[in-house]
Design goal:
The complex is a heterodimer of chains A (428) and B (466).
Chain A lengths: L1 E2 L9 E5 L9 E7 L6 E2 L4 E6 L4 E5 L4 E5 L6 E3 L3 E6 L30 E2 L18 H10 L17 H8 L33 H16 L2 E9 L1 H18 L6 H14 L6 E3 L2 E3 L6 E7 L2 E3 L2 E2 L7 H16 L13 E5 L18 E5 L2 E8 L2 E15 L5 H16 L2 H5 L2
Parallel strand pairs in A: 1-6, 14-17, 17-18
Antiparallel strand pairs in A: 2-9, 3-5, 3-8, 4-7, 5-6, 6-10, 7-9, 11-20, 12-13, 14-15, 14-16, 18-20, 19-20
Helix pairs in contact in A: 5-6, 5-7
Chain B lengths: L3 E6 L3 H12 L4 E5 L6 H6 L1 H20 L14 H25 L2 E12 L2 E6 L4 E11 L3 E3 L13 E2 L1 H4 L8 E5 L3 H12 L3 E5 L11 H14 L2 E3 L2 E9 L2 E8 L2 E7 L1 E4 L3 E3 L32 E3 L10 H15 L13 E3 L4 E6 L2 H6 L4 E7 L4 H6 L5 E7 L5 E8 L2 H13 L4 H5 L10 H10 L7
Parallel strand pairs in B: 1-2, 1-5, 2-3, 5-16, 7-14, 8-9, 8-14, 9-10
Antiparallel strand pairs in B: 3-4, 4-5, 6-15, 11-12, 12-13, 17-18, 18-21, 19-20, 20-21
Helix pairs in contact in B: 1-8, 3-4, 3-6
């Protein structure tokens, strides 16, 4: 929720302005008003959903009163622009809204804006959300309030797209909407209406359009190439087995593979700085810091929060960051800033079972590392066939600034470091 | 040029409701019915007359057995079967006339007579006055319903002593001993009527439980309660013969391989109903009913002949008036080019015994058989203040919900006014409600409906008053 600082135009009306949601955000598009002009709104009611190219933002009412909408759905608004006005002299309809929870200060109040809760930008299509005018069922209301979930972010599978309790549970688990079991005894199904093979047409959200534009932009501007290698995970798995209990006990977080790969990536980036750089016009920008984007799956799709200064973090700190981002991504609680920046990205398609893929660049970055599923495979070691836990890795890179030799060497470096993590310690 | 857009053949719940809906949608519609009155089995010889008799007999039963507890004493309680029948007939007649009024209001042409297909666009109607007329239509809807199953070989109907539900609604006097074949809905309802009016009632059922499609807990409770009321059950017993023997009817059955004989006055055969398409001339349009008499239809209720539809008891699904009328409406909408839709997951099923039984969705055995992970909440009416005040504390509410999503997958009520109470849970199922949704909705106090709230809370093991 985002509380808009309000200014009293006269004694009666309060402006609802487009909030400042993050440093890189200049404007937003009004996605949906939850009220129509003339409606009585309560303080803290969510008034409007705004889409920026980074995230969806909800703006709540700072005062109770009758709302007059100025900017319509679909209109673009700049930061600070007035979107609506609330007439605070209006009284709540009988039996309707309750008065403002806190007594309004008599002087012109200056409420510092609370930090916004921002829903992570989803590369997946926005879910069909329950029409905002539809009231929530009691259990859904309880669960969304208890867990701080925005109902708009939950995919509704009930009648006419209503949100069921099962949908909220599925949302929290970050999975697909729960398909409830069919409670009907075996009988004829005539539940498919006429014109069975229907199709649906929905306007793409601003977010989706931006993502689509960016992906195409990346494909069009960068000369993307992918190089592959494979990694014997035996040593990492042994270390993990040996220390996972102690690690968990000490840091309260599991020892995963991600920290090894991030560590290895940072070392490799130090060796091949172009991979950590990007093109800006006619310049190449090299970064002497290592902000690693970690692709995390959320119910709204893949989001890429950024672990800043990854080179300064310990294994435990990296694992904690990854875990924290994963959880908050699922809850839709990542902030815009947390998803901005990043000089290199690590994406683990292995969690979904992918054996091999060609990741796409996250512009303006120049490279992305794709991790995959670990699979036991026969490999030849010292002339003998042995079974080893193997992982294919892929590096997609922008050939404009990274040469083939560099990219291949970069990936080989990661392979060497992960296959023999002692190198990380020794620094060779 | 077809005279009508659509003709419904059969004026029962499926046909008359569908015809009205078609009229509302601006279609030129007619409805053919040969019974002489609209409303089909339900209104004429089913749901409505049986409820009239159930109510009358329950009042008598109450006066006899339950009023004393309330401190009400009658010197002498009597009943008059003829008056009960007269009242029942009056209700039926006023309701069927009401449908004729609705037909007029919605511009539905009522064709009185027996319809027989000539071809896929023409129907020949032998009218009540003896003439034959032909009507053409772009579409037809077969809504001819069902008829009681007759056990021709072992217990042929004689219209007097070995009868179907139709005659059991019109006994002129109370039979001394009534044997009911089949412990299903009709058997238990009609058995209850005559039991309350003084008959000895013996119910013979081939399966090992009463109300076989209901939840097992409900079946067991029902049997216990009806036995308390004096009904006798012979379960796992197979009828072998029912025949007149002097003034009595001799019933022989087989139980555990051993023969049993009962001498009684009347036998009601209530072993189910069969789709009715006799004399419809289906062969003229190239349609043939299945072995069980039903017609196959697709999702649009279309038969193998594209412009001939079928709804109600003649197609698959439970033989229920409210299922039939939903389908009648849906087919009218489909024919009018709209998306007609019936949600078969949210159709309630009711038994009007006392206490009543009502259910929606899956029973526990079905949930188990499907391998679902579920939770149940069960609360007795005994724990409910209103039920106590009412003096009707038999029965319980049982809610079955998905263990993970909490979505209600089945609800089962046995208790006072269960038929009315179930509506709340039907709406719940229709809207994919969780048990918690019901548990968190305010229920007026004191009401019987509170038991449903408590049962919903009990799903999560947190009922407050039980």
């Amino acid at each position: 929720m985002f509380k808009v600082s309000r200014e009293v135009i006269d004694t009666m009306a309060v402006d609802v302005k487009m909030p400042n949601v993050g440093e890189s955000v200049q404007e937003g598009v009004i996605h949906k008003w939850r009220f129509k002009s003339g409606d009585f709104v309560n303080r803290d009611d969510v008034l409007v959903e705004l889409e920026t190219d980074k995230a969806t933002v909800e703006v709540v009412a700072e005062s109770s009163g009758a709302i007059e909408i100025i900017k319509k759905q679909g209109e673009t608004v700049a930061i600070g622009e007035v979107m609506a006005r609330i007439d605070t002299s209006a009284t709540a309809p009988a039996g309707g809204a309750k008065p403002a929870a806190a007594p309004a200060p008599s002087a012109v109040p200056i409420t510092p804006p609370a930090p916004p809760t921002v829903t992570a930008a989803p590369p997946a299509p926005p879910p069909v959300t329950q029409a905002s005018s539809m009231p929530l069922s009691p259990a859904v209301r309880r669960m969304t309030e208890e867990h701080g979930i925005s109902p708009g972010s939950v995919h509704g599978t009930g009648k006419d797209g209503r949100i069921t309790k099962g949908d909220v549970i599925a949302h929290m688990e970050g999975g697909a909407p729960a398909t409830a079991p069919s409670p009907a005894p075996a009988m004829m199904r005539a539940s498919v209406p006429a014109g069975v093979r229907t199709e649906r047409r929905e306007q793409m959200s601003l977010l989706r359009r931006r993502i689509a534009e960016r992906l195409v932009h990346a494909q069009e501007t960068a000369a993307i190439l992918t190089t592959f290698n494979e990694i014997d995970m035996s040593n990492v798995m042994k270390i993990r087995n040996d220390y996972k209990d102690k690690f968990k006990e000490k840091y309260g977080v599991g020892l995963g593979f991600m920290s090894f790969f991030i560590k290895a990536a940072v070392e490799a980036l130090k060796t091949y700085p172009a991979v950590n750089g990007w093109i800006d016009g006619n310049d190449i920008v090299y970064h002497d810091f290592y902000d690693i984007g970690v692709a995390v799956s959320s119910n709204r799709g893949l989001v890429v929060p950024v672990i800043k200064d990854a080179d300064h973090l310990s294994m435990a700190e990296l694992e904690m960051a990854v875990g924290d981002y994963g959880k908050r991504a699922r809850d839709g609680k990542l902030s815009v800033d947390e998803m901005t920046g990043g000089t290199f990205t690590v994406s683990n398609g292995g969690v979904f079972g992918s054996l091999m893929s060609t990741p796409i660049l996250n512009p303006p970055q120049s490279a992305i590392l794709g991790m995959h599923k670990i699979q036991e495979r026969p490999v030849v070691v010292n002339g003998e066939i042995v079974i080893r836990p193997m992982m294919y890795v892929a590096l997609s890179y922008d050939h404009r600034i990274i040469d083939g030799k560099e990219s291949v060497s970069f990936l080989v470096k990661i392979k060497e470091l992960v296959e023999d993590p002692t190198r990380l310690l020794v620094g060779v | 040029m077809a005279a009508y857009d659509v003709i419904f053949v059969g004026g029962g719940p499926a046909g008359y409701t569908g015809a009205i809906r078609a009229g509302q949608l601006g279609l030129n519609v007619a409805c053919v019915e040969f019974r002489g009155s609209l409303g089909g089995t339900c209104l004429n010889v089913g749901c409505i007359p049986s409820k009239a008799l159930l109510q009358s007999s329950e009042f008598f039963h109450h006066a006899q057995h339950k009023s004393a507890e309330h401190g009400i004493k009658y010197q002498k309680v009597e009943f008059d079967v003829a008056q009960m029948m007269k009242r029942k007939d009056g209700i039926v007649s006023s309701l069927t006339k009401g449908i004729e009024g609705l037909f007029k209001k919605n511009k539905v042409t009522y064709i009185k007579g027996k319809g027989t297909f000539v071809n896929a666009n023409t129907i020949k109607v032998a009218t009540m006055d003896g003439s034959v007329e032909e009507h053409t239509a772009k579409s037809f809807v077969i809504s001819t319903g069902s008829t009681p199953i007759e056990l021709k070989a072992i217990a042929p109907f004689d219209g007097k002593d070995i009868v179907s539900s139709t005659e059991a609604l019109c006994f002129e006097k109370v039979p001394e001993h009534l044997v009911v074949i089949g412990a299903g809905v009709i058997g238990l309802e009609m058995g209850s009527v005559w039991l309350r009016l003084g008959s000895k009632v013996t119910v013979i059922e081939a399966l090992d439980r009463v109300l076989p499609p209901m939840d097992a807990a409900v079946s067991a409770e029902m049997k216990k309660i009806l036995e308390k009321q004096g009904m006798e059950f012979m379960l796992s017993t197979k009828l072998t013969k029912a025949e007149k023997s002097g003034k009595k009817v001799k019933v022989t059955a087989e139980r555990d391989g051993k023969p049993v004989t009962i001498d009684c006055d009347k036998v009601l055969v209530a072993v189910g109903r069969r789709a009715y398409t006799d004399g419809l001339g289906l062969e003229a349009v190239g349609l043939a009913p299945r072995k069980d008499g039903k017609l196959d239809v697709n999702h649009h209720y279309q038969t193998a002949v594209a412009n001939i539809f079928a709804v109600g008891d003649v197609i698959d699904g439970p033989m229920l008036a409210h299922k039939a009328d939903e389908e009648g409406v849906a087919v009218a909408e489909i024919i009018a080019g709209k998306p007609g839709h019936v949600n078969y997951e949210a159709i309630p099923n009711v038994v009007y015994t006392w206490p009543e039984v009502a259910s929606v969705g899956m029973n526990e055995e079905e949930a188990k058989a499907k391998g679902l992970n579920y939770k149940t909440g069960k609360v007795p009416f005994m724990a409910n203040g209103r039920a106590r005040a009412f003096g009707e504390t038999d029965g319980f509410v049982k809610i079955i919900a998905d263990a993970k999503t909490d979505r209600i997958i089945g609800a089962h009520i046995i208790g006072p006014n269960a038929s009315e109470l179930i509506a709340e849970l039907v709406i719940g199922v229709e809207f994919s409600a969780s048990a918690e949704d019901i548990g968190r909705s305010s229920h007026a106090h004191p009401t019987l409906a509170e038991v449903m709230k408590e049962a919903a809370l009990a799903v999560d093991k947190r009922s407050l008053n039980f």
